[in-house]
Amino acid sequence: MSFDEVREVLEILIKHLEKQGISKIDLTADYYWQVDSREIFEFTETPGDLSLGQLTFDIENLKGLLAQPEMVVGHGFSWLGSVLTALGYQHGR
Fold it and tell me: Where are the domains of the chain?
């Protein structure tokens, strides 16, 4: 999948929510279970300890990237992924 396709899919999904009158991210949950990054794609064993992730933390970090784009980090994809996952569960119809 190309980055152009990812942008297009995101635009389609955002427009879908906007058509429902949803104009901003207003999540009903804050904390979520998180699997260690070294174990998340390893299927030979059951993951060990789970940790907690926090959507408000993820969103604040993403807003920080908007304020200072030169401070971009690859983990931003994980923050965005968590927010998109929460949106999918909250608005998945």
Answer: 25-91
